[in-house]
Amino acid sequence: MKKKTRKLTLAAGLVAGSLAVAAPALAEGEVVFASWGGSFQDALRSAMLEPAGEALDISVKEDTTNGIQDVRAQITAGAVAWDVTEQDLPSCETLKREGNLEPIDYSIVDTTGIPEELINSHYIGFINFTKVIAYRKDAFGDNGPSNWADFWDLEKFPGKRGMHGKVNYNLEAALMADGVAKEKVYDLLATEAGKARAWAKLAEIAPEVTVWYRGGSQSAQLLRDGEVDVIHMGHNRVESVISSGIEVGYAFDGGTMDIDCLLVPKGSPNKDNAMRLINELLTAAAQARLAVTMPLGPVNTGAFDTGIISEEMAVKVNTHPANYDKQLLVDPNFYIGQLGELTEEFDTLIQQ
Length: 352
Prior knowledge:
Elements: E1 6-7, E2 30-35, H1 38-56, E3 59-64, H2 68-77, E4 84-88, H3 89-97, E5 123-136, H4 137-140, H5 148-152, E6 161-164, H6 170-177, H7 185-189, H8 192-205, E7 209-213, H9 216-225, E8 230-234, H10 235-243, E9 248-263, H11 271-281, H12 284-293, E10 297-298, H13 311-314, H14 321-324, E11 328-329, H15 332-335, H16 339-350
Parallel strand pairs: 2-3, 2-4, 6-7, 6-8, 9-11
Antiparallel strand pairs: 1-3, 4-9, 5-8, 5-9, 5-10
Helix pairs in contact: 1-11, 1-12, 6-8, 9-10
């Protein structure tokens, strides 16, 4: 699909000291960045891309991506147009295994403040988002379901349930509901016995789920309208419901954290500038600016020390040090190679 490329109009001039590691005083030329479009990319532009272009004195152009197939198509055609693109974590790992990515140049990309588990030889974490258990206070007061065992407990917490309508996150939730520590979830799912245990536990709650939602906007509408009393949904969407005046409670305990990452497609025409752009997007200041623009978690922990994120807001951010370790970081390796099979079994279960 041919997409329209947007060129940003950027002021010339270098912002002294903006690079966290040494780079030439002027990195002439351009770089093409592709993300998901819409209001999210608008936020990226104002919070990150425009300041990065000014700091590097390069022209930052934009495109939009629909996912992994777009990257593959460019590489297969020998016509790579993107220098940096944001993709979901399973796509990043899959493209790496296929040999479709340039290695990240860590002599340019500074990883200070970025958790080790988000740093890979061929991609690096960019933003974090978490699905949490959220409940309406008009159904449960201030003491609603706050962990997966509670979510499964219809006797103690009766009410209408909502869950993500894809297999992702649900098997993990089922094992945590069955008492498995989050640190052991993927070790168990790597075994046939562990998967069987997760499916059996998920089968207990499936008939009680009122809605298996497909999109984030749908999940917010369900909670806002009271069509569900408790739901597993993105914490950023929960905050949007709260801001609309609905009293909702949630906690990060047992939340399923996922990330989008940045990568450089094999054959990038502006590879050096791609690395410099990635470095700028991961600075503490850039990450903090995005966090106050959209309720998503910065990967750089230094973002909380910039003064850009207020203390009141910081404690509501999923990657704040007080919240980070309470959550399960999704492992893309579990799904690669068996997502189709897992999806088929999941669809069969929820349709019964």
